[in-house]
Amino acid sequence: MIEALFFLFAAMAVGAAINVLVQKHVLYSALSLIVLLVSMSGLFILLNADFLAVINVIVYAGAIMVLFVFVIMLLNLPEDEDGADRMRWLKFLGIPMGLFLLFMILATLWNAGADAGVQAQMPGSPEAIGRSLFTDYLLPFEVTSLLILIALMGAVVFAKKEL
Amino acid sequence: MKVIEPETQERENFFTTTASSLINWARKGSLWPYPFGTACCAIEFMATVSSHYDLARFGSEVVRFAPKQSDVLMVLGTINDKMGPVLKQIYDQMAEPRWVISMGACATCGGFYRAYHVMQGIDEIVPVDVYIPGCPPTPEAVLDAVIKLQQQIEADTRLSYERHPRQTKLKTPEVNATVHALEPPPRALVRFLDDNQEVKGPIAEAFKRRFPEEVVSMREFRGDLSITVKRENIKQVLRTLKNDPEFDFKMLLDVTAVDYLSERQSRYDVVYHMLSLSNKHRLRLKAAVPADDPSIDTAVDIWKGADWAEREAFDMYGIRFKGHPDLRRILTHSQFEGHPLRKDFPPGQRTMCTETTDLPVVERARKYAESMGIAHPTILNVGPQHPAMHGTFRLQVAADGEKILDADSEIGYLHRCFEKMSETHTYWQVIPFTDRLNYMSSMMNGVTYAMSVEKMFGVDIPKRAQYIRVILSEFSRIADHLVCVGTNLVDLGALSNFWYGFRPREEIYDLLESCCGGRLTVSYVRIGGVAQDIPADFVQRVRKLLETIPPYVDDIEKMNRHNKIFKLRSEGITAISAEDAIDWGFTGPTLRACGVPYDIRKWFPNYDYDQFEFDIPVGERGDVYDRYLVRMEEIRQSLRIIKQAIENLPEGPFQIDDRRISLPPKKGVYSNIEDLMNHFELIQDGILPPIGEVYSYWEAANGELGFYLVSNGAKRPYRLRCRGACFYIFQAFNHMVKGLYMSDVVAALGSLNIVAGELEK
Amino acid sequence: MNLDSFIDWILLPLIKIGILFGLLSLVIAYLTLLERKIIAFMQVRLGPMRVGPHGLLQPIADGIKLMLKEDIVPSRADKIVFTLAPVITLIPAFIVFAVIPFGPRSIHIPGFTIPGLNVQVAERTTGFFITDLNIGLLYVLAVSSIGILGIILGGWASNSKYPLLGALRSAAQMVSYEVALGFSIMGVLMMAGTLSLVEIVNAQKNAGAWYVFLQPVGFILFFICGVAETNRAPFDLPEAESELVAGFHTEYSGFRFSLFFLAEYAAMIVVSSMAVTLFWGGWLRPFPNIAALGFLGLVPGFLWFALKVLVFLYFYLWFRASWPRYRYDQLMKIGWQVLMPIAIANVIVTAVLVLWLGGSR
Fold first, then answer.
1. Chain C residue whose CA is closest to A72
2. Domain boundaries, position A132
3. In sequence order, what DSSP letters do the residues of B572-596 get, joined into one string?
4. Contact status, residue C223 vs residue C268, Cβ threshold 8 Å
5. What is the predicted ipTM?
6. Which residues is B704 bridged to in the sheet?
7. CB burial of residue C201 (10 Å; 0-12, 13-18, 19+)
8. Residue range of the domain that includes C278
9. In this structure, are A71 and A6 located in the same domain?
10. CATH of the domain at A9
11. Together in a domain, A5 and A72
12. Confidence check: pLDDT of A132 > 60
């Protein structure tokens, strides 16, 4: 049954991901992205990473995507055809970048095979995540927070010209 | 086989009938109304929703302002040609099954408005299921209509409804008689108006000193000073009148016109009424305008308040005000042909309206966006059928998100040709029309109108009639303020206040009903007094009301006065300075909220108002909150006045004993020929006031209500101009809301107490 | 898959879902009647009286009527999204109930043998809830955050200005208040030391006091944010009748409109249930640890729960009858400048106290 669910979620995720790219209308892309994120959460649950799954939904599907949709609605973009022309040079950049990404993923998977013992300790529980965030990964965590803070300040500066 | 067939048939029938009766039961129990409210009937519909009648009992209180979610379109009030396309559109948007209730005589057949701008029944454009007779129908009649509709639904065997698109019919009833044809004005009127008189008085003398060249004639009639000047230099004259401290006419009360047709060299008179708040003078200034070039300089750059009044004069008479920034039609619709108040315009000649046009704000916004190279701001159309626009006002805004950058307002969706109608009816017959001006406090309109005719005669009415008028008018003021405050708070989201406001109102209705049989539009006033004496238990009823009203008022006060949210929503919203308010021509509570204690009851007292003890509440900032406070306090002051009046209610006749005005006693009619003849003549011709022109005014609930009456000695008014207080208040509205949020518009409109009947006449 | 796990994982939940769904639909329908009645009484009226005795069949009539009403899809609307939006709003509103504990784990099903097949079914205990997730609280937040999407999409897909304004208002409102809402329950989490809703109620039993007494600030914040999250007065801006006609669902008619309606009322019940579970001891009777009041325990837990939820629903209606609504910018200001700082301060104070008094209670 778990396998069946895995394939279901995986298929949904892949299908939604393809739809994100294929759709002309940017709002449909955003909606597909939400489907993608939700099916990702399903996969997380199958991996016993409940906490991660739920946070994924709250943060990405619930908050960030809502803001995405919000912005799309505010701008009310028309279905844009000539946008593709302006970005033609990106196509050529896309191939090496894609290959690079594929390589990275394969490398990670290759390495991951070596130590599968991590899974035994329920990595998905809030406690485990909290512990590793504040001990082993403290520096990256704090650096990330700082990054977000800077981005936030940048946004405020842009939005509010007279401060 | 032969045996089974009919049986299955029967079973199917049984099944379908049960299903359809279940469905019909559901449909009739859940009739959600779309209140297409425009006029007086809408107020009676509110009463139907309020505690005494409670439409909710039938499951029909879920008022949906989204046509797609409502079941029954309740057309409440007059629909005129301008509103026609709107009604049609709302009907078309409703989801099947849908029903239409036509409430009141106006919606059903145009009522007594056989006029150039009023649709003669909404079944010209939408199908109607139930008609409610009455003008306005009582709440019982509305409940009856809902029950009738329920019965109709119950008997319906259809399971599904198809859409029936119904085309707008072009039906223009032609009424051939022009007002001119009804009776030609005697030349005496023109002679009277043009004759020069030696007038004493500070204003007249100062005027003669300052403008010896400009004066054509001067006249004083019944205490009204009237000066006719040449039109060429009108701008300079007006500017001096406003700015010179000797005149100091800071407030322009009214601009209008009169048509003398071929009686005179120059066909039209443009008439300005103005008021000086510092030395309490009033002045009527007139300028003759010829028919071949009907134009005069605008006064908009002198008084802001001249804006809409000049547009109205343009709309009604075709007089062009040179230099007016936005001289468009205002009351009639964009496709209207002709200028209806001209004497040679047939009163019933309609032009069909098939379109709704954009207001200038759209063009302005587009130009602005182009010049700045930015995206086009959102154009949002608010009204006329928007819940916060009270059914008849239209606002078009250019908005940036929720913030309003620019706005324009449009009126005329309830223009029912009051002024034309009063020219075609006798003096008595005009009284019911006046009731339907400010239908929230109809008593006061009647009083003011009667005062103008009495002023024309130069008579004083008996003390008892005066006191009855005072008491009932003050009650009307309370009722008016309660509706205003209640609906304003509902617009802000505080629902219950509406019901708390309507309960005492209902008790005031009871009092009025005991006097004259009418609830909302009372027609109690007669020229020279009131229709009949007050009932025997009047004093007890009033005493009881004096005790029952304050608790309701206190309830509303307790819920709102110190309510944090209410204060957040109302403080500082559309605050206006006293100078601006006067410049716009604000009067009444809206002006007093700015700190100007101008109240006709104190400044120009009549009817013993100088003997009553009462205070005038004034605000400081002139914002929504101050207006609320002023209104609530005025309710208390009105109660004070009523208390003193009822204690001193004099005995005596309720009608003036003047055979020119009031009917002779029945006994005399039956016993002697003089009284019989007198009675006959009065019934046949009505009253015949002397030739002249007067402007009479009173403190109505909204502010100064004025009637400018021109009489040519005939049985119909030659010209009756109504100066509605909210006409001058509402023209400032689109300027006041600039820079505010959408939600503030809602708060502000409710606080101004704009009553469509008075606004659009 | 053996029989026991079939019963545990499929049969029992299905039965419970069935019962809950039926009950919930009924409760929501009658909540509308309750609203109309209570507000009517507050306004010195009677409310629905004619459809059934005292209007008791009113919701049923409304329901049938709405279902049979013509379903208009505006010609210029985005048809797919327009159709999807009410569903996206409704489903999360209902599936939240999967983790809400209506009563304790106290339903005993005795073991029995199915005659003929000779299959032994073991004795088992189950609770008045569909499931007890160890991250139940987060699940509630996650699922309800999806519901916002339906409202935004509905407003956008209508291709009309008022619904769009309503949708924008609600998006901004719900996203901002969700943050404060999340912070307001942190105190409870720290005290209970768990994310499971059942365990949170049990923790309140062990603590001997409902958390509302230990976390009063947290509770007030939670309820304010909850009211704002459900778009009810005085925060009912997205569908402010006098401003935006009917807000995001102006263009919806008939059945689809009723789905939005149902979702709104379901959300009200969710917020009330969460308030009860997190702060008012869930199914616990008052003073759960005082033996002298043991007779209160005669009333079953789920009834206590229902009673408490009703109180909160009553508050909702009370607010609606009494208060004006905020303006958009004021609402945002309150959310970010008032509620957020208080919520964060509450978290910090609670954290310090919890540490100081030694571990979780």
1. C156
2. 120-163
3. TTT---HHHHHHHT--THHHHTTT-
4. no
5. 0.84
6. B699
7. buried
8. 78-101+132-360
9. yes
10. 1.20.120.1200
11. yes
12. yes
| C346: three-class secondary structure by DSSP | helix
* Rounded-to-integer distance, Cα C145 and Cα A56, Å: 12
* Strand B692-699, strand B704-711: pairing: antiparallel
Say yes or no: C322 contacts chain B, CB-CB below 8 A: yes
Q: Is A51 on the interface with C (CB under 8 A)?
A: yes
Interacting residues of B429 by C-beta distance below 8 A, sequence separation 6+: B686
Q: How far is B236 from chain C (nearest CA, A)?
A: 45
pLDDT at residue A146, rounded to an integer: 94
CB nearest C148 (choices: A50, A55, A66): A66
Nearest to B86 by CA among B335, B437, B392, B313: B392
If phi > 0 it is left, if psi is from -120 to 50 it is alpha, else beta; for residue B381 that is beta
Number of structural domains found in chain C = 1
A34 chain-C contacts, CB cut-off 8 A:
149
| Burial environment of residue B273 by CB neighbours within 10 A (0 to 12, 13 to 18, 19 or more) | buried
pLDDT in tens, A20-75: 888 877 788 888 888 888 888 888 888 777 788 888 888 887 778 877 877 777 76
Q: What are phi and psi of B463, to 5 degrees?
A: -55, -40
Min Cα distance B366 → chain C (Å) is 18
A147 has a pLDDT exceeding 90: yes
Which of C148, C160, C168 is the mutation pick for testing A, counting most A CBs within 10 A? Answer: C148
**Beta-bridge partners for B407:** B397
**Residue B4: what pLDDT?**
46
Helices (H) then strands (E): counts for chain A? 8, 0
**Cα separation of B325 and B403, whole Å?**
25
CB contacts < 8 Å between B and C, how many?
Answer: 181
Contacts by residues C328-332 (CB-CB < 8 Å, ≥ 24 positions apart): C328/B402, C328/B741, C328/B742, C328/B743, C328/C169, C328/C172, C328/C237, C329/B402, C329/B741, C330/B568, C330/B569, C331/C173, C331/C228, C331/C235, C331/C237, C332/C172, C332/C173, C332/C176
Distance CA C204, CA C101 (A): 14
A77, A103, A131 - which closes a domain: A77
Q: Which residues of chain B have pLDDT under 50?
A: 1-10, 165-168, 170, 176
For residue A160, CA distances in Å to B140, B271, B615, C251 come to 58, 52, 49, 35
How high is the pLDDT of residue B478? 92
Number of domain units in chain A: 2
Provide the chain C residues 157-176 that lie in CB contact (below 8 A) with chain B.
161, 165, 168-169
Average pLDDT of every residue of chain A = 78
Tokens 């139930």 belong to residue = B130
Give chain C's residues under pLDDT 50.
360-361
In a domain, C137, yes or no: yes
Q: Which of residues 69-108 of A touch C (CB under 8 A)?
A: 69-70, 73-74
Cβ of B499 within 8 Å of Cβ of C43? The answer is yes
Please indicate, yes or no, if residue C43 is contained in any of the structural domains: no
Last residue of a domain, one of A22, A56, A77: A77
Query: Which pair of tokens denotes residue C125?
Result: 């205990």
Token pair listed for B260: 């003398």
Question: Closest Cα to residue B392, out of B43, B4, B747, B1?
Answer: B43
Question: In this structure, are residues C342 and C217 in contact, taking their beta carbons and an 8 Å threshold?
Answer: yes
Q: Which of A16, A27, A18, A19 is nearest to A80 (CA)?
A: A27
In a domain, C73, yes or no: no
pLDDT at A21: 83
Same domain, A3 and A70: yes
Q: Considering only CB atoms, which chain C residues are within 8 Å of A70?
A: 152, 168, 171-172, 175
Q: Is residue C114 part of a domain?
A: no
Environment class of residue C12 by beta-carbon count within 10 Å: exposed (0-12), middle (13-18) or buried (19+)? middle
- What pLDDT score does C240 carry? 66
How many residue pairs bridge chain A and chain C with CB atoms within 8 Å of each other? Answer: 69
